[in-house]
Design brief:
- The protein has eleven helices and twelve strands.
- By secondary structure, the protein is of the alpha/beta class.
- α7 crosses α8 (238-251).
- The strands form two sheets. It has an eight-stranded mixed sheet, sandwiched between helices. Strands 4-3-10-9 form a four-stranded mixed sheet.
- β1 (2-6), α1 (11-22) and β2 (26-30) form a beta-alpha-beta unit.
- The protein has two domains: 2-178, Rossmann fold (3-Layer(aba) Sandwich); 182-304, Orthogonal Bundle (N-(1-d-carboxylethyl)-l-norvaline Dehydrogenase, domain 2).
Length: 311
Amino acid sequence: MKITILGGTGAMGGVFGARLFLHGHDVTLYDANQAAVMSVKENGLIYTDKQGVSHTLLIPATSDASQLPGADLVIIFVKGMYTQAALEAVKHSITPDTKVLSLQNGWGHSEVISGIIPKNQMVMGVTYASGVVTGLGQIKQVGGDDMFIGNWERPTDDFVQNLAQVFKAIGFNPVVSDRVIVEIWKKLSLNVCTLPTTAIPRLTADQVPTFEGLVELMQGILKETVAIAHANGIPLDYDERISYIVNLLKNAKGGRSSMLQDFEAKRPTEIDFINGAMVKAGAKAGIPTPYNHAMVCLIKAIQGSYTPNPG
């Protein structure tokens, strides 16, 4: 399969790009980070798998969208605020037969993507894999392999079933869902609770549930999120979600969230597509969101305290 990955030198783009390439797929990494792209061109993508084995992979990479070949599949891993620009840049390489898969964190991406790509070419999903950037063109996978995918606002078809088999063959645990929106909200409920509560106090994931006040904070954030989900016909269960989230954090020994990594690297965060999306959705549904709003205000204040590195 010919695959273009947007945000290909980032943590998740690199993990998926490396694993697809290792299994014989024709992968091209597209990224606006020119320094990282140059490192991949000169030295290969240095990918360290979960077993600690390092692979040097000569994967084609570019920051010049005009150089991109056509693709069977485009996978989006850029942060939400860069989705429109990235898709517009590569749109010339997307044919009517190309499918576009978003595995991004947060809520609101489908609206942006559907403004550029026809809905019958859209596949949405979430992944519970995680990775870290350890240097320019250097990626390490540190998380699991579960993922969910499904067509957006239409039933499952052969393409999605075949795509699931592609991901299964490279070691992921894909589940195809006709209601992938529910899985997106489940992941969103995790993100709204854990990303700001790790980033703001600069804590690893397993440290968060050791502080009673942070658990209470997550409970408040989650109650707002569940109420908004219910108002939108999404069946989230508060008790199941809070138990899942706390247990996941306890078992994520030393885990550093993506938002914490953004702070450490002085990069912009995706707060507008995480807690910010809940503030926006809450206002639309008439549901107050003081906990989520507080997270947005605090994250943006911290971002404003440093000069962002756009990479």
